[in-house]
Design goal:
alpha/beta, 8 helices
Length: about 250
């Protein structure tokens, strides 16, 4: 991991708070992510981790605090759209168009949003499908692909715009257990290639083996963060201990 003292964060959250109605989802969150770093957010459902991710990706606004992503101040509403194209987002649901092939799903945004020619979009899309091991499935429709393959097409779609940061929000939780590995394998290869990644996941094996830093969230605050071995083997916070005991035993 890069020496954090020498690097300017590519993502910076300062004093970020967010409520939905009467529910205080995030309370004064401070979090930096450095270029090339893989940060994994863990915690119980409702702890705020997906909201943090959505704020970083420009999909959710804050009530207070500052959010800088790739030097764009997302807390300034008029500037937020500048983040598009800098980041890729992969959701729990694949959100593929059923009437388009894998190739068609990946080329669509390149043609519509990036104004690429169909030929250039096809070349870029094929490179992205190759990257996730699905070049041979380019002409298959989503109904002809397994859940794991559909999620890999969704990753290819996000990669095709050549983002500097990839966000993953529970990218494997809708998959059957035997299909999880093929998706986490792609995510690990992106990490090895130096992609800046922020990942919300319940896959503790992925967090432990792939993250540079694990952030444990509890009731809207960052309760603890650190290198995976330190956090998994010797957590300092009692809530972290309870959470890990529960999920690892399970």
């Amino acid at each position: 991991m890069t020496d954090p003292t020498q690097v300017k964060p590519i993502i910076s959250l300062s004093g970020v708070s967010k409520s939905f109605g009467a529910t205080h989802v995030l309370k004064e969150i401070n979090l930096d992510v450095n270029p090339g770093e893989v940060v994994v957010l863990i915690g119980a459902s409702g702890s705020g981790k997906s909201t943090v991710l959505r704020i970083m990706a420009g999909l959710e606004t804050t009530d207070s605090g500052q959010v800088w992503v790739n030097e764009v101040p997302l807390h300034e509403a008029r500037r937020a759209k500048e983040i598009r194209g800098h980041v890729g987002m992969v959701f729990q649901q694949f959100n593929l168009f059923p009437h388009k092939t894998a190739l068609g799903n990946v080329t669509l945004a390149l043609i519509k949003a990036r104004r690429m020619s169909p030929a250039d979009a096809r070349d870029r899309a094929m490179q992205a499908l190759e990257r996730v091991g699905l070049a041979d499935r380019a002409q298959h429709y989503p109904s002809q692909l397994s859940g794991g393959q559909q999620q890999r097409v969704a990753i290819a779609r996000a990669l095709a715009v050549e983002p500097g940061i990839m966000f993953f929000d529970e990218a494997t939780s809708a998959l059957d257990p035997e299909l999880v590995g093929e998706v986490t394998q792609v995510m690990r290869s992106l990490a090895r290639d130096g992609m800046t990644m922020v990942v919300v996941t319940h896959e503790m094996g992925f967090a432990r083996q792939t993250a540079d830093r694990v952030v444990f969230m509890d009731k809207g605050v960052i309760a603890e963060q650190g290198e995976p071995e330190q956090l998994f083997v010797n957590p300092a916070n009692e809530r972290t201990r309870q959470f890990l005991h529960r999920v690892l035993d399970h």
